[in-house]
Design goal:
The structure holds 3 protein chains of 3 kinds.
Chain A: H1 4-8, H2 34-71, H3 74-77, E1 81-82, E2 87-88, H4 91-122, H5 125-140, H6 143-169, H7 175-180, H8 189-213, H9 217-225, H10 230-241, H11 243-259, H12 262-267, H13 285-292, H14 299-330
Chain B: H1 2-42, H2 47-51, H3 64-95, H4 100-112, H5 117-129, H6 137-161, H7 165-173, H8 178-189, H9 191-206, H10 210-213, H11 233-241, H12 246-278
Helix pairs in contact in B: 1-12, 3-6, 3-9, 3-11, 4-6, 5-6, 6-9, 7-8, 9-12, 11-12
Chain C: H1 2-15, E1 24-28, H2 33-47, E2 51-55, H3 58-67, E3 72-75, H4 81-87, E4 89-104, E5 114-115, H5 117-125, H6 134-139, E6 151-155, H7 160-172, H8 174-179, E7 192-194, H9 196-206, E8 210-215, H10 216-221, E9 228-229, H11 241-250, E10 275-283, H12 289-305, H13 307-312, E11 316-317, H14 320-333, E12 335-336, E13 339-340
Parallel strand pairs in C: 1-2, 1-3, 5-9, 6-7, 6-8
Antiparallel strand pairs in C: 3-10, 4-8, 4-10, 4-11, 12-13
Chain lengths: 332, 280, 345
Amino acid sequence: MLDVSEVTGGGIMPPPTLHQGEPAAIPHAKGAWFDPVFEGLCFGAATLLLASLSGLVISLAIGGWPALSHFGLSFFTSTTWNPVDDVYGAAGPIVGTILTAFVALAIALPLAIGIAVYLVEFCPRMLARSVSIAVELLAGIPSIVYGMWGLFVFAPLFAKYVQMPLIMHAAPGSLAEKLFAGVPNGANIVTASIILAIMILPYMATVLRELLLTVPPQVREAAYGLGCTPFEVVTSVIVPYVRRELVGVVMLGLGRALGETMAVTFVIGNAHGFPKSLFASGSTLASTIANEFTEATGELHTSALIALGLVLFMITFSVLALARALLSTKKV
Amino acid sequence: MQVHELRRKIVDRLFTIACFGATVLALVALVFILWSLVIQGIGSLDLHVFTQSTPAPGSQGGLLNAIVGSLMMCMLAMIIALGIGILAGTWLAEYGGRTPYGAVVRFMNDVLLSAPSILVGLFIYELLVRPFHGFSGYAGAVALAFLATPIVTRTTEDILNLQPHTLREAGIALGTPQWRVIRQILWRAATAGLVTGGLLGFARISGETAPLLFTALNNQFFSLDMGHPTASLPAVIFQYALSAYDDWRRLAWAGSLIIAVVVLSISIIGRFMTREKFKP
Amino acid sequence: MFKKVTIAVGAAVLVSGLAYAADLAGAGATFPAPVYAKWAEAYKAATNNQLNYQAIGSGGGIKQIKAKTVDFGASDKPLKPEELNSAGLYQFPTVIGGVVPVTNIPGLHSGQLRLTGALLGDIFLGNIKNWNDQRIHAANPRVTLPNLPITVVHRSDGSGTSFLFTTYLSMKNPAWAKQVGGSDSVEWPTGLGGKGNDGVSAFVKQTVGAIGYVEYAYAKQNKMPYVLIQNKVGQYPAPNAAAFGSAAASAPWANAPGNYVLLLDQPGAKTWPISGATFILLYKNQQNAETGKSVLSFFDWAYKNGDAAANALDYVPLPVGVKTLIRKQWAANITSGGKPIFVTK
């Protein structure tokens, strides 16, 4: 049991006795002087966070400015990426980034919700802890291991059991043939998206699980008491309860997917330009930076790579802003 | 009425199966990857890995300097990340979260969640490496903290937001100063969530290579001096995994296995410590 | 309790930054990293001096030495004399290696397929799309090649290996020179990009009909079937230490200002046409005489004692004549406060 005096610092004072005409003495709890200090500390931390992030974005803008001013708008629409002639255009990596991130999210979000709901609602207590730890373990695998696993284990299997059958069974000239065209060695957008989905899944599932656990038991019990099936409880009561924070979960996953470098670089095939089919190789903003930054010596080349980083930030900005706008309208 | 009942039951059954299926799928992926990891890594794990420093190809050696370096940098990074992240998340949840300024802070935090780690490394390079004319473990730790802090901030804010208002009101009604309400009531109630945030942050940075490339560099030899290039496990794994030499590649898999095991252990320990004390 | 432990450990970590000071730090090219690591290990055992070299890429090496964050830089691509002079840098070679095209064609072993530089260029341009193309057959009359589409595999990341390969193609194939050019990172007209030599090897191994290019060490260690390339005098030597060494021995080191020498298409019957040296970058005027001396002592030691280690790792040491020349250059070029810091013995 919580000792009340421990919490209030022994500052409970007896109620003031009121005399006619005297203003009541306002009791101050012991330790209240620390309040503004603490608030200041928290505010300072938040401001420090904001300052460092702004510093990062500003340094990107400064670094990327030479390339952006040189190419202007064509930087965003051109698919040419030629370090020899010093001509750079970010359209290919932009498309690759958005495609892989959204496909990964589309795969991972339903799975994460399913896992979190299963762990909280259906899983037997004994098993729940071990399974949730197992899911968290996926988060602890270094991204380079995902890359190596993807390249040496998953890609060949994907090529053999998914790509080959699809390519062989697609009638020549059909839409299917165009969609599935590509060298069957597993190095393509879809493989990268699947690996990304596996990588962001544990973060989303873990946080979702924590969120679902904070729903007060009374809310749950009330719903069950009304005769709802578990499905209805989850969809009509529990998930809406944490809807606001659900955005946070999606952001966590999307953020990871947009910025993931190593794993994607290994399996995406790294071809510049627009991907021509589902199974074509592509590139992402992060993978292009990772591939070329350490060796880039030209001023314009380096600046173009930093500009890619800036573009990545801009994409994240827009996606987040959009999500927020959508949410604020729904909350009515 | 009957049909409606049946439909609800079927939907519910399908839903349950779907959730179960999702979990199974995730576990299958995990087992698959771990299986590859263990098969490759366990053969190379012996005492040398933990007692000797990184070797040149063909020589005998281990990963001692990399393990120690990673531990030092990750711990320093988590101290910074937890310190700033929890305080910032608290500010967002309890103080200024609903102001325009708070909205900006929250937004920027979410944006940083997706920062490509190599760019963070470059930024810290400009800040802490170039002016001081030398790579250092401290710069590496700061770069890692940059990556972990947004995760901690995000989860802290979310968890604190979900604490019922009755807790706060009860504390204030007793005359408790706000900082005590936060520290002794809210933080305690949310400990499991805060620990999760810390663990997720740690999991994220323990396998990061790119931010360390331009900050801590890496070190072939054993060193406790964080003011100079410091070895790290991910950097060594990255270098060795992509090399042509068999002994280096085996060490890379061993290192990957070590990271995975460490994250798992810390995860289990964290859960254990918070579960036992604070079960409702 | 948890908090107290954390604070204590944190304090210990911060305080412990007094244990060791690394002696020398160098960074740059990935290609020689294994052999530098081997030399550093042996050097420490022999002299108790520590030299920490890290591979961050040739571009990184150049940037870091210019920013003075390391004691020396390393690059697979030599800097042009103008760039050296404007930065006050000096460069010298350390070891030699070669770039080898590798294939995955069923039934074909190492050395069975012969190509000229021009043909190789056409394949990588995407102008030759199938292995049974007439042009390939003309160069290989005694080999039957299957009806198999060619999949080109190149490097997705910038690298000295790509620099050597693409520069060679530019020399031998005018269309390549015009359309693509030679650099550590180019706009490849066709094909897949693998990350690192490892990525290229993996893609080639996994894709039937693939052709890629890797450092010799990778081709040898992974036992990949290599292709023979016609050299300057029309011969098709096998890629090995002797072939790369022959390239180094035939190159005009003595006449090259700033040691800017590309070992591509060098003369000699046994010369492998796509060879390359890797270089160390140093400031001509050393701010700290001790540091400069230590760096040169290390490489001097390596020149004397490092050949066996280099050979064991599939690198080729410099010919003796070149080493003598370089030592003379050290004595003449590297100074500190006006005084030379290296004396040839």
